[in-house]
Write a structure and sequence with these properties.
16 helices, about 280 residues, mainly alpha
């Protein structure tokens, strides 16, 4: 596929225009003018393609649009807004769902960003979450979308969790369920009591908001073997559920605590130096 770098063509025309008008506009005015020029360029006849940039993409089939976007990403050629606009006008989901299963992580991320929170893509999104080899950042992007719909997706999430599919991501989604459900509470509590990822699972209990978890959190925070990061997350979870924990703890030998304190000292010194100067 021969890609057309419309953004590159625009940059050439823009450079010429700016040179011809370099003393006519201020920097602030250029910030307003350039987007208008780009929009106008979309309706400008380009002899190389014998049509305007907008018409070039309007003539493509859905598959051609998807393939062209994939090619732009893979070959690192700037993706024109005119291409994205045509995809959006056609309906991002049906055009871009094939990209969600692409081997190129950048292509998948691009597709998710364009599709966004669209129910038509949920089946594909769940497939991404339950594929063990899927990119973690991509799965996190999908989880962020599903967290907003935790209640309506609850049964499906529970089913995947019980099958052992994408469990970490399913736990995060379940922690955002608002309507109380004993199954959800038991799963979140069991994860916390597993002694794995204590800081993360404490945060899930805090997000879920069931006060019955408070005694379990208070018991764990008394454990003198936990590190500074775990302690901080546990303390936050305790307070989020209406509890308190004020007993002094010594983390002077904890590497995370030392790093945090050192960073605080550097910031303080930088601020002092700024004031002195």
């Amino acid at each position: 596929m021969k890609l057309i770098d419309f953004d590159g063509l625009f940059d050439e025309k823009l450079a010429q225009f700016m040179e011809e008008n370099k003393d006519k506009y201020t920097e602030k005015q250029w910030e307003d003018i350039i987007p208008k020029l780009y929009k106008k360029f979309g309706d400008t006849y380009v002899s190389r393609v014998k049509c305007t940039p907008k018409e070039y993409y309007a003539k493509m089939t859905d598959k051609e649009l998807s393939d062209t976007l994939r090619a732009h990403i893979r070959e690192d050629v700037p993706t024109p807004e005119f291409l994205c606009a045509e995809i959006e006008a056609r309906g991002e989901t049906k055009t871009l769902i094939p990209l969600l299963f692409d081997e190129d992580v950048c292509a998948v991320s691009y597709a998710i960003n364009l599709i966004g929170d669209n129910e038509q893509a949920y089946d594909a999104y769940f497939e991404i979450l339950t594929k063990e080899l899927a990119d973690e950042d991509v799965r996190s992007d999908v989880t962020d979308i599903f967290r907003l719909h935790a209640d309506e997706l609850k049964e499906r999430v529970l089913a995947y969790y019980n099958q052992g599919l994408g469990k970490e991501y399913m736990l995060e989604i379940l922690s955002r369920v608002k309507v109380r459900d004993e199954r959800v509470y038991e799963i979140l509590l069991a994860a916390f009591l597993s002694e794995e990822n204590t800081a993360v699972y404490a945060g899930y209990l805090a997000a879920y908001g069931d006060e019955r978890a408070l005694p379990h959190l208070l018991k764990k925070i008394e454990d003198r073997t936990i590190g500074f990061v775990e302690f901080q997350e546990l303390k936050y979870a305790v307070e989020a559920l209406g509890g308190e924990y004020d007993e002094p703890r010594d983390f002077s030998d904890d590497k995370d605590y030392v790093a945090v304190e050192a960073a605080a000292v550097r910031r303080a010194n930088a601020e002092d130096n700024g004031l002195k100067s």
